[in-house]
Amino acid sequence: MDTPLPIVIVGGGPAGALAGERLARGNRNVLLFDEKLAWEKPCGGGITHKALTQYPFLAEAESHHNPVAHCELISPSGQRVRFYMQYPVAIFSRLALNELLLERARAAGVELRKERVTRISGVDGDWRLTTPTGEYRAVYLILAAGARNPFRAQFLSPISPDDLLITAGYFIPGRSSLMQIQFLKGITGYIWVFPRPDHVSAGIAGKMGETSTAELRRTLERWLEENSFSLEGARFFSHILPALRSRTLETLEVCGEGWAMVGDSAGLVDPITGEGLYYALRSAELCAQALLAERPAGYKVQLEEEILPELRLAARVSQRFYGGQVFGESVLERMVSLTSQSESFRVLMSDLFAGIQGYRDLRSRLYRSLPSLMAEGLAATLRLPWSGSGLATDPFAE
Ligand SMILES: Cc1cc2nc3c(=O)[nH]c(=O)nc-3n(C[C@H](O)[C@H](O)[C@H](O)COP(=O)(O)OP(=O)(O)OC[C@H]3O[C@@H](n4cnc5c(N)ncnc54)[C@H](O)[C@@H]3O)c2cc1C
After folding, report:
1. 46 touches 179 (CB < 8 A)
2. What average pLDDT values come out for the chain (398 residues) when binned by 10 residues?
3. Which domains occur in the chain, in start order?
4. Ligand 1, pocket residues at CB < 6 Å
5. How far is the CA of 375 from the centre of ligand 1 (A)?
6. Of 165, 297, 302, 392, which cross-links 241 as Cys (Cβ 3.0–4.6 Å)?
């Protein structure tokens, strides 16, 4: 009897590795290609409490990450506030994270190949993949090749530049226990400093078309110098990151006859924060579950139920978050000043950074918190949201 063809996964980042592991544990024959296998992919590497709860093996891999409980927010005008995060963010180097996930995939039975897939042809049930060393066949295809997925155009329309962020950054030698986020004037994005176990990932993101990599790099370098970071021995990186607009998310396709896309390949990234690791892992898991249940199209149904409504809301409010006004001040300035003035708001920020406060019920939580915010001395500066233009300028209004 012929051996059944494997499921082939193109890309061994978090999405590809976890999809492979889950499928192999379900006794599927899986072949995974990654041109580099584990590597230091340009990334902050920040993993939220929500993701750590969903994937406890990440929290347990203590030597692989730096649990960071203190965060500094800096507004565009330079107001600074530090707050404690009840649920620390686990900051991984991507080399360590990818190694961990690929090793789990290998241990579950996935065959890993360090090869670049250069061509895909064939049809559902009998795909042909070409690499520099040969041709492989697949019964089903999972595309987990990241934001630069070279095969996207073959299955779907390419991601538009309007749906992308550009990023630039440095891996800087040194240690720290403070996570920093600097919001910027005129840039839909921010500067981050994420301390990892043995170095720091510092970077900047902005919307493609609104700025250039060179401009972002200059802004970041200036900021790092002003904030006493030395670039001696630092390594530069730049990459792209999906930040899909709401209209793109409304019509998002992620699977078809005999294929599916997961993680960045599918565009599953929070368009406000750039968080993609949780979505890469969760989309991979949902895709694998649908395949194991012999209902591949169930993947899209689960995404629609669990992930897409949150990403769509984030996309709708992203513009107002970065560029809007609330109570006569920019949303970003107001957010930093509320964090500094109000304990309830600091708890809310901590929950947002933990990923346990979603966007969908954020607005109602903000309204519920108003009495305590006011009791905390803000009555003088806050206009009640139901009077005048408050509701219209609410950044989380849909
Ligand atoms: C600068 C930056 C900072 C970020 N910071 C954070 C953060 O702090 N927290 C967070 O949650 N998210 C962050 N993200 C997003 C996060 O990095 C991505 O969402 C995540 O890596 C997506 O995982 P993935 O497996 O889908 O894709 P990737 O991690 O990009 O993996 C894709 C893999 O496919 C391989 N590949 C590509 N083409 C081929 C081919 N033809 N043949 C074989 N292999 C191929 C690549 O080698 C790669 O290993 C950041 C992104 C950027 C750019």
Report:
1. yes
2. 88 98 98 98 97 97 95 96 96 98 98 98 96 97 96 92 97 95 94 97 96 97 97 97 96 97 97 96 98 98 97 92 88 93 91 89 80 58 38 40
3. 7-45+94-157+246-311 (3.50.50.60), 161-242 (3.30.9.10), 322-393 (no CATH)
4. 10-16, 33-36, 41-46, 116-117, 144-146, 150, 167, 169, 194, 203, 239, 241, 263-265, 269, 274-278, 280
5. 44
6. 165
